[in-house]
Amino acid sequence: MGTRYTEAELQARMKFVIGLTLAFCLVGIVFVILYSLIFVTQPLGQQSPNDAEFFKLITPIATFLTGILSGIMLGKGADKEEPKEEEHTDDIA
């Protein structure tokens, strides 16, 4: 068997995989939106009803993914090390 990872290393790997997955989802959503705006024919002078509903659905999903991604990347969570308390010995003589 290989070497065992510490808890901090496992936490870092988990953050990386989750962050990468959410980032790919967000990039995919952005490219789909850009594709639909650039290459799909729209009615003259207005937006297609299907596209309007599509944007109503995609906007909160992209916002949610962005918030989750930033929270995971900025959050400390279990990475914080608690400061060790020093033992005080009071010698009464």
Labels describing this entry:
single chain; 93 residues; mainly alpha; elongated
Q: Topology, pairings included?
A:
Elements: H1 7-38, H2 49-74
Helix pairs in contact: 1-2
Radius of gyration: 24 Å
Number of strands: 0
Structural class computed from helices and strand pairing:
mainly alpha
- Poorly predicted spans: none
Helical content (DSSP H or I, runs of 4+) = 55-70%
Description:
There is one protein chain. With 93 residues, the protein is mainly alpha-helical. The chain has one domain. The protein starts with 6 loop residues before the first helix and ends in a 19-residue tail after the last helix.
Briefly summarize what is shown.
The protein has 93 residues and is mostly helical.
